[in-house]
Every structure is written in C-alpha cells, then in structure tokens.
Amino acid sequence: MKLLVTGGAGYIGSVVAAQLLEEGHEVTVLDDLSTGHADAVPPGAAFVQASITEAGGVLSEGFDAVLHFAAKSLVGESVEKPGLYWSHNLGGTLALLDAMRQAGVNRIVFSSTAATYGEPERTPILETDPTRPTNPYGASKLAVDTALTAFAGLYGLGAVSLRYFNVAGAYGEFRERHTVETHLIPNILKVALGERESVSVFGTDYPTPDGTCIRDYVHVADLARAHLLALDACTPGEHRIYNLGSGTGFSVKEVVDVCREVTGHPIPITVAPRRSGDPAVLVASSEKIQRELGWKPAHAMLRDMVADAWTASTKPA
Ligand code: UFG
Predict the structure, then answer these.
(1) Whose CA is nearest to atom 36 of ligand 1?
(2) Is 200 in the pocket of ligand 1 (CB under 6 A)?
(3) N or C terminus of the chain with fewer C-beta within 10 Å?
C-alpha cells in the first residue's frame, strides 16, 4: 500500500514507518521536525518536511491510508499551554481529515492515548470505560476520537484509534530522543549515562502501595506491530478504538529498580512534588485488540524494554 505517516520522524512514528517498509509498503513521512529528527526517518521512506495542516499537496498524489502520529504529546506541557494542544492536536487533525476527504483517502490509523480516560474508576481500563481526561493533552486526543466516530458515520471514513499506555524500549537504533526529555525511563537512563545526577520522582503520596504513580509499559516494537494490524482492520464507515498496554502496572519506584538492575548503576532519586495532570494509576486491558485483531505482545517484560532502551541509548545517535 502507499501510506502517509505523519510524525514519522518521531519515536513511535519512525518505528512504525520502519516496520511498514519491512512489510513492503511504500511510505512517505510527513513531519515538521518540531520535535522529530530527520535522521530518524527510516531509509527507504520518502520525506516531506511540512506541518499536518499542509498535508493536502502530498495527499493529492494518491494514498491508500494515513497513519497519524504527529502531535504534541506531553501531559505537563499541555497543562501549561492548553491552546497549543487544542490547535495542534485537534485543529491540525481536523485539517488533515479535511485534506484526506478532498484527496479521497478514506482510511486512518490514529495515535490516541490512555490519557483520554483520566483517573480510572477501575483497572485494568476497558475501551468502554468513561473518558474523563485530567489534562488538555488527553482532552485534545479524545476530541479527535469523537470526530473520527462522527466522520466514519458521515463520510464513510474507516478509522482505528490506538490508545497507547506508556511506550518504552527501542527498535534497533530507533529510540526515544526528545530535546526536552520528560518521560520517566529516558530520564532514569540519563542518570545511568552520567548526564544527570539523580532522577526526580514526582509525588510519593499517591494512593498506591509505594505512594508513586503506576503505569502500564508496552514495548515500542509490539506497539508498532499493532498499527499494521489496525491498518488491515480499517473498514469504511467504522471507527474502532483499542487499548494498547501490557496489562501490568509498575510504580515509578519499581521502574527505577528495574533500571538499576539493567544498568548496574545506583541511580539516586530525588523526591519532588506531584506533576499536575498525572493520574495515580493507568493500566490497560488490551484484551479487545488481542481478541479482535490477534495482537500479542512479544516483549511484555519491563526488563526487556529497559534493556533495549539502554542498549540503544549507549550507541551514538
Ligand atoms: N515521572 C517521574 N519523574 C520523571 C518523569 C516522570 O516521576 O522524571 C513520573 C510521572 O509523574 C508519571 C510517570 O513517571 O507518574 C510516567 O511519566 P511519563 O512522563 O513517562 O509518562 P506519562 O504517564 O505522563 O505519559 C505517557 C505518554 C502519554 C500517555 C500516557 C498514558 O507520554 O502520551 O503515558 O499512560 F498518554
């Protein structure tokens, strides 16, 4: 298939683009490089440096589907700059959907998030559970999911939203590499690499066994594989939503312990106040995608995710 991957110079988009190429698809990456890296675009993909609001020109060349990753994706930043999140994530995606309709491209796989659920009433979270985001990031992604449902009904769009929980690990040389790093595992590994003295633990007074937030980590290679299944499952007139996690939660302190084991570094921690917008516990049920699309995580152990991230981060970028 001829596929447009928006945000294909970012962490997850580049891994999906690489897997699509391995499967023999023709891939064009569209990325404005505001947070992505040109050298993350896999060899073999065409590259267009542009914003999603300018996707019309590229799409008019004729594509079978779009895999849409380009977005602002930091919970903390979204609380500080909500307008940025609404304009990029909702405004940008609506412009992309409009351009797709004009170009007659009617299939999309959308990068949604566990942040759409907010503070869950129960865990593991099911796709049918209430969506009450606790930050503008989750709210903007939820708004896109709502638009996709409407567009599927109105215009016959075939859409699949994948609600990621916490993505970790690396795929060969493709790894997480943000200019301003806010994510837990890369920040911990920076300590082991000697780039930071300690890692801050944001909040130790949450209602969890050790007082730190619990998250569900999924390996980026497994997550990427789900996009290929989702692409095949895009059915005109339908919008499907699937969670993607491993079903097991790890607290911030437990993640630090696993990183200590993998790296052999003591990794000192500093207790810091809670980060606003963070729910206490986010753990997914991924039973639906396993049942309906046959997705099966091959690297469900947090240790393996950390080990792959560690190996990739000790190589030059
Ligand atoms: N944390 C720290 N110290 C750090 C970084 C993070 O204690 O230096 C804590 C956070 O407060 C949070 C946990 O580690 O409790 C995980 O934080 P991340 O920033 O790694 O990830 P988030 O859970 O905030 O967000 C990620 C993605 C979102 C997605 C969400 C869903 O970035 O896109 O997972 O679970 F919505």
Answers:
(1) 115
(2) yes
(3) C
Distance 200 CA to ligand 1 centre (A): 12
> For atom 32 of ligand 1, which residue has the closest CA?
74
Cα separation, 132 vs 148, whole angstroms? 18
User: What residues contact 248, with CB distance under 8 A and at least 6 apart?
Assistant: 216, 283, 300, 302
Protein residue with least CA distance to atom 5, ligand 1: 184
Kindly provide the b/e burial profile for residues 223-248, where b requires at least 16 CB atoms within 10 angstroms of the residue's own CB: bbbbbbbbbebbeeeebbbbbbbbbe
pLDDT digits (tens, 9 = 90+) for 246-277: 989 999 999 999 999 999 999 999 999 999 88
Contact 220 CB / ligand 1 (< 6 Å): no
Q: Is ligand 1 within 6 A of the CB of residue 258?
A: no
Report the chain (317 residues): mean pLDDT per 10 consecutive residues. 98 97 98 96 98 97 97 93 98 98 98 94 95 96 98 97 96 84 95 97 98 97 98 98 95 98 98 92 96 95 96 81
Q: Is the pTM of this model over 0.90?
A: yes
161 sits in which H/E element? strand 158-164
